[in-house]
Amino acid sequence: MATFAVSSGTINPLTRTLPLAKNTKPLSLFSLSISLSLKASKTPLRASSMSYDKQLAAAKKAASLAARLCQKVQKALLQADVQSKSDKSPVTVADYGSQAVVSVVLQKELDSASFSLVAEEDSGDLRKEEGKETLQRIMKLVNETLASDETYGNAPLSEEDVLAAIDSGRSEGGPSGQHWVLDPIDGTKGFVRGDQYAIALALLDEGKAVLGVLACPNLPLSSVASHNPQDPQEKVGCLFYAQVGSGTYMQSLDGSTPIKVHVTDLDNPEDASFFESFEAAHSLHDLSSSIAKKLGVKAPPVRIDSQAKYGALSRGDGAIYLRFPHKGYREKIWDHAAGYLVVAEAGGVVSDAAGNTLDFSRGRYLDLHEGIIVTNQKLMPALLKAVKESLNEKSSSL
Length: 398
Ligand SMILES: Nc1ncnc2c1ncn2[C@@H]1O[C@H](COP(=O)(O)OS(=O)(=O)O)[C@@H](OP(=O)(O)O)[C@H]1O
Ligand SMILES: [Mg+2]
Ligand SMILES: [Mg+2]
Ligand SMILES: [Mg+2]
Hints:
The protein is α+β, with helices and mostly antiparallel strands and 398 residues long. The protein is built from ten helices and 18 strands. It has two domains: 52-260, Fructose-1,6-Bisphosphatase, subunit A, domain 1 (Fructose-1,6-Bisphosphatase, Chain A, domain 1), CATH 3.30.540; 269-397, D-Maltodextrin-Binding Protein, domain 2. The protein has helices at 29-37, 53-75, 93-109, 132-147, 159-167, 188-193, 285-295, 308-314, 337-345, 380-396; strands spanning 6-7, 10-11, 82-84, 90-92, 117-119, 178-186, 198-205, 208-220, 236-243, 248-252, 259-261, 274-276, 302-303, 320-323, 331-332, 348-352, 365-366, 372-376. A seven-stranded mixed β-sheet has the order 5-6-7-8-9-10-11, sandwiched between helices. The longest helix has 23 residues, at 53-75. It is globular and about 60 Å long. Bound molecules: 3'-phosphate-adenosine-5'-phosphate sulfate and magnesium ion (3 copies). One magnesium ion binds at residues 183, 186, 335.
C-alpha cells in the first residue's frame, strides 16, 4: 500500500484506500448501555470531596485512542474527507470518528446510565443519502481503532451504533451534575493543513471543570520555542492531563512516564512570547499585536492551531495566549474547558478580557466579555491593563 509523508506542515495524499475493519459482527450500543447501566452508582458525590481518578484514566484512554484514529486519517487525508457544515466550518471523517470513539470508550469504562456528553459534532449530515459512504468509512475507522485496543477487540459497532455514539454528544450541559465536554478535533483547519490540532476532553462537575485532557498528536515533546520541523528525529505527540487540585502532567502519546508541568515564572513582559490562533478569521491579530506592543513584548507572535496553545503554555513554551474573536462570534465550551484546566492546574490564569474567570456552567456556549486571555499570575495584572487600554483605543477608533 502507498504511504504518505506528512512533513513541514503539508500532506501529500497518495491513496484513497483505508484498511478494512478486521471484525464485522455488529454490537448494538443499546445492548452495551443496558449492560453497563447495571453498574451505575446511585450516590451523587460533590465536586470538592471527590477523586476523579477513574474518570481520568478513562478520559486518557479515550483521548489517546481518538488521537490514534486522527493520526491515521491525517496521514491519508483526501479532499473528499473534508465536508462543510452549515456554518461553513470544515468537518472530516476524523472529527466524527474521534467523537464516536471517545463516546464509546467513556461509556464502556464508566457508568453509562448517567452519561452526559456535550460535544461539537452531530450525525445530521451522515444520516442523509449523500452521507452514506462517509458513514461507512467512519464506521470502519472507529472499529479499526477500537480493535487496536485489546479490551475492545471483539465487538464491532454497526452504523447505527456509530451514529448513536456521535449523537450522545447532544447534551446541553449546565450547572448541575457531571457532563463530559468534547472537541473531537479542535483546530480542524490545522488538522487538514497537516499542522497542530488537539483532542480536547474535559469533565464538568456542578458547573466546574474538574478534569482536562488534551491529546496533541503533532506537538513536539520539547518546547515549540526550540522546535525544528526539518528534524526528522524530533519526537512529537503529547498528552496533557489535569485533575482539579492535583496539578498538570504531560506524557508522550505513546506512553512515557508523566512529568509535572508548570507555566513559566517569568515576570518581565519584555521577555514573554505570546500565542494566538493560526487563523486570522478566529482571532484579531491586530489587537493582539497592539496589546503585545503595550506590554513591551519583543518576540513575534507564535501562531498555532487549537488548544495545543493551552498545552504549550502549561509547560512554559510561551507566557501569554490572546484570543479575540471577531464581533458576534460566540465561544463554545468544548473549545476551552480542557485547556482551561490544563493551564489553571499548571499555575496559570485564564480569564475573559475583563478578568472574569470562564463559566462553563451555562450550557454549550461560553458567554464572556470580548475575548480570552491566558498567562501566569505575575504577568496577569499588566496584561489586563494592556488589554483594557487596547480595547478602549479600538472602540474609540470606530
Ligand atoms: N469565526 C470564528 N472566530 C473564532 N473562533 C472560531 C471561529 N470559527 C471557528 N472558530 C473556533 O476556533 C476553533 C479553532 O481554534 P483556534 O482559533 O485556537 O485555532 S486556529 O488557529 O484557528 O486553527 C475552532 O474549533 P474546531 O471547529 O474544533 O476546529 C472553532 O470552534
Ligand atoms: Mg469545528
Ligand atoms: Mg474547536
Ligand atoms: Mg472541533
